[in-house]
């Protein structure tokens, strides 16, 4: 990898939860960053200008995924692209077209700019939604979600991400773009942006009292800083190729609320499962070996949950504990 000084990279959807962390790490490493946002004047993107190195090396460019010219302008002259922008919703109209057309647009703009490499933020949603997978099968980079199943279950987010990733591979091959893909599981950890994004709501609802019970289901988790570090690592590692599953561990919701209640007993964390009739859902097996083979180390999920809650406190999203005793200690 040549010195990053003077290297220009574009990050799409720069103000988002994961992208903000990618921008932060890239600036810290010395890259010059062009971040695309839909509205550079929106206060919700203000945190980007406060990042270390932003004054000297960050430009915010107005771009929409469905506006090819805007992407072309942002990516022109870049050495690399991190395509992280995507709607995150189960509304089919808002999800599918921007995810799929937007990804093709970014690849075409990257091809025109002759970038060295493009990293695309896909999702576990493009990997594991397959009702025919054997329960003992280890989920790895060879797995793909079943599109018919996603459609029939109205899981439009997973459908959109899977179709977008497939389109990315096809378009990159046709246009000769060096594409590497990352498939994160549910992302938690400190927020840089002022607003709460969808994956953080997954935890917030257990702290505010809005969830009275927890579901009988499992979920894989990963720390947001790890996700951003993995993006940069696969961008910088010439031998990196294909897809990279980015996951630390799978927990049942019962385990999540138990960890939260131990660390933060002040909050009204649910203690009852919404489904006490069926057997407890089992964690699926997965491998994160491909990233580990690049020397990558994951943050433990307990630390990730702890940092998420601390960040929500700092952002004023949940009240600070009012206990007079010792400050909360974490043991992991
Ligand atoms: N968080 C997770 O658990 C998770 C897990 C796996 C994969 N991912 C993937 O990671 C990426 C980032 O997710 P996130 O959690 O960071 O979500 P986020 O905070 O909601 O960020 C999404 C970003 O995409 C931008 N965007 C949406 N539609 C756009 C459009 N039509 N044109 C331009 N920009 C658009 C948004 O811009 P505005 O601010 O203008 O709306 C926002 O900056 C997505 O591709 C998502 O599928 C996330």
TrEMBL record:
CDD domains named in the record: FR_SDR_e
Pfam families: Epimerase
InterPro entries noted in UniProt: Epimerase_deHydtase, NAD(P)-bd_dom_sf, NAD(P)_dehydrat-like
Gene3D superfamilies hit by this protein: NAD(P)-binding Rossmann-like Domain (3.40.50.720)
This enzyme's EC code(s): 1.2.1.44
Residue ranges constituting the NAD-dependent epimerase/dehydratase domain according to the UniProt record: 9-241
Broad EC category: oxidoreductase
GO molecular function ontology, one term from the record: cinnamoyl-CoA reductase activity
Domain of life, source organism: Eukaryota
Record pathway: Aromatic compound metabolism; phenylpropanoid biosynthesis
Record's keyword annotation contains Lipid metabolism: no
Keywords on record: Disulfide bond, NADP, Oxidoreductase
Similarity comment: family membership: Belongs to the NAD(P)-dependent epimerase/dehydratase family. Dihydroflavonol-4-reductase subfamily.
Name this polypeptide is given: cinnamoyl-CoA reductase
Lineage: Eukaryota, Viridiplantae, Streptophyta, Embryophyta, Tracheophyta
